[in-house]
TrEMBL record:
This is ABC transporter ATP-binding protein. Residues 4-250 form the ABC transporter domain. SUPFAM superfamilies: P-loop containing nucleoside triphosphate hydrolases. Keywords: ATP-binding, Nucleotide-binding, Transport. It comes from Sphaerisporangium album.
Length: 258
C-alpha cells in the first residue's frame, strides 16, 4: 500500500488560477518518485502539499491510507516521524547560530523520539546524532561545529542527517543537489542512493536534472501546467516517452558536443 498519496488534488493560491488540477500520485515503499516538469509546472507546490505544509483546495493527501488532517496534532506527529524533508539550499536551511549536533538532534526532540530523561536523554540524543552523521559520511566531531565551517556539499549532508536521524520512511527532497557543483552533486546523489539501500528510505524528489532522477527514483511523474501528463516507471517515461511534453522536456536537456 502507498505510504503517501495525492488523490485528485487541486490547489490554487489565493485569488489565482489553479496551479494543480486533479493530481494523483502514489508513493509506494521502496519505489521513489520523481516529480519533473518545467519551471512553474507546480512541482514544489505538490511537494508542499505532500509534506502537509499547505492544505489542498481539492482532493486529499493520504498517509498510510487515511486522510492527512493538519489539525490533528498526534496524527501530524506520526506523519512527521514517517516523512521528512530536505530543501534545495543548504545555506539557508540550517540555523547558523546552532551547532550541527543541535541541528541534527532537533527532530528527535520535537517529534518526541527520545525516551529517557536528564543525562540518559542527552546521551541517547548524542548517540543518535553520531549515528546519523556517520550515515551521511561526516566525522563525529562535526557535531561540535557550526554550519559556516562546512562546504555546500557538507551542509547538505548535515541537512540529510537531520532528515534521517529519526529513521523516516520517506524523504521528500526539493531540488536537493541543484545548488551544488557537479562533482559534489554526484556524491550527494550517491549518498541518497546509499541511504535508499541501507535504510529502505523512499525518496520523492523534485528535480530538473533527469540524470539524477534516473539514478534515484523508480517512478517518474511529469507535470505540465499543474496536471500530470504522464507517469510510470522512470525507464519507460524517460526512455520511451508517450506524451509530447515529456519528449520536449527530454530534448531540452543540454548534451555535451560529440
Ligand atoms: N506563494 C505563492 N503565491 C502565488 N503564486 C505562487 C506562489 N508560489 C508559487 N506560485 C505560482 O504557482 C505556480 C507553480 O509554482 P511551483 O513553485 O509549484 O512550480 P515549480 O514547478 O516547482 O517551479 P520551479 O521549477 O521553478 O521551482 C507558478 O505559476 C508560481 O508562480
Amino acid at each position: 500500500m502507498a505510504v503517501l498519496a495525492a488523490d485528485r488534488v487541486g490547489f490554487a493560491y489565493r485569488r489565482s488560477a489553479p496551479v494543480l488540477t486533479e493530481v494523483s500520485v502514489e508513493v509506494v515503499p521502496g519505489r521513489g518518485v520523481a516529480l519533473v516538469g518545467e519551471s512553474g509546472a507546480g512541482k514544489t507546490t505538490l511537494l508542499r502539499l505532500l509534506l502537509g505544509l499547505t492544505r489542498s483546495t481539492e482532493g486529499r493527501i493520504l498517509f498510510d491510507g487515511s486522510e492527512l488532517n493538519l489539525g490533528d496534532r498526534a496524527r501530524m506527529r506520526a506523519f512527521r516521524r514517517g516523512v521528512q524533508t530536505v530543501f534545495q539550499d543548504p545555506y539557508s536551511s540550517l540555523d547558523p547560530r546552532q551547532r550541527v549536533g543541535r541541528i541534527v538532534a532537533e527532530p528527535l526532540r520535537s517529534l518526541g523520539l527520545l525516551t529517557g530523561g536528564g543525562t540518559a536523554r542527552r546521551t541517547e540524543a548524542e548517540a543518535r546524532v553520531a549515528e546519523a552523521l556517520d550515515a551521511v559520511g561526516l566525522p563525529p566531531d562535526a557535531a561540535r561545529r557550526y554550519p559556516h565551517e562546512f562546504s555546500g556539499g557538507q551542509r547538505q549532508r548535515v541537512a540529510i542527517a537531520r532528515a534521517v536521524v529519526g529513521h523516516p520512511r520517506v524523504l521528500l527532497a526539493d531540488e536537493p543537489v541543484s545548488a551544488l557543483d557537479v562533482s559534489t552533486r554526484v556524491r550527494i546523489v550517491d549518498l541518497l542512493a546509499e541511504l535508499r539501500e541501507t535504510r529502505g528510505l523512499t525518496v520523492v524528489m523534485v528535480s530538473h536534472d533527469l540524470a539524477v532522477v534516473a539514478t534515484l527514483c523508480a517512478r517518474t511523474a511529469v507535470l505540465e501546467k499543474g496536471r500530470v501528463v504522464e507517469q510510470g516507471d522512470t525507464g519507460a517515461v524517460l526512455g520511451s516517452p508517450r506524451h509530447p511534453y515529456t519528449r520536449r522536456l527530454i530534448d531540452s536537456v543540454p548534451r555535451l558536443p560529440r
